[in-house]
Amino acid sequence: MQSFHVDESDDRTPHERMVAGDWYIADDPQIQAESLHGLRETARFNELYAHDPGGAQEILRGLLGELGEGAHVRAPLRVDYGTRLHIGAGTFVNFGLVALDVVDIRIGRNCQIATNVQLLTPIHPLEPQPRRDGWEGGAPIIIEDNVWLGGGVIVCPGVTIGADCVIGAGSVITRDVPPRSLAVGNPARVIRTL
Asked: What is the DSSP string of 116-135?
């Protein structure tokens, strides 16, 4: 986890700092507007899904950074913004995904995301005062093609999970997982190559 330091000469907006993964404070009007938009659109998606699962996917095509051909997301879904969540073709996302997309979350093609998975990009300072002052940042998550995340998996900020991996149910992924690995536990560790 990066230590807290803010360059006083940095004149970017909080939104620009946020999407770059740098320290920012979320009281910026653009950040608040994007968050509200994501909240409203996921509420529409979650409501419609029970009546028209296919139509609900169209809501996501307008919200997410990408929803690939043949991908399907089941409700309920929770996002911070939605626009930085990218889901590849043929991927299936089961009930209860939480995707805190302060920065990019990229899910590859033909992945299986089980129930109640959490993809968490936000980070907070370890130092007490900056945390108290509301500073936060983010680190992207990359899930490569043909990954299966078991139920209740938590993926921490800045992690890449390589292609063809399987992550056991309930695992907490705190570091990168090489391709073709089976990883389990909290914190997860690779127990064999696939």
From this structure: T-EEE-EE--SSHHHHHTTE
> What's the rounded Cα separation, in Å, for the pair 113 and 116?
9
Q: Scan for tokens 């929803």, then name that residue.
A: 67
Can you list the residues of the chain whose pLDDT is less than 50?
none
Q: Is the pTM for the entire model greater than 0.85? A: yes
Q: How far is CA 43 from CA 20, 76, 85, 146, 165, in A?
A: 27, 9, 16, 29, 31
Provide the annotated active-site residues.
Answer: 124
Residue 2, pLDDT score: 65
Neighbours of 131 (CB within 10 A): 13
DSSP the chain: -PPP---TT----HHHHHHTT--EETT-HHHHHHHHHHHHHHHHHHHHHTT-HHHHHHHHHHHSSEE-TT-EEPSPEEESSSTTEEE-TT-EE-TTEEEE-SS-EEE-TT-EE-TT-EEE-EE--SSHHHHHTTEEEE--EEE-TT-EEPTT-EE-TT-EE-TT-EE-TT-EE-S-B-TTEEEEETTEEEEEE-
Return all residues near 70 (Cβ < 8 A) that are at least 6 apart. Answer: 89, 90
- Amino acid 175: pLDDT: 97
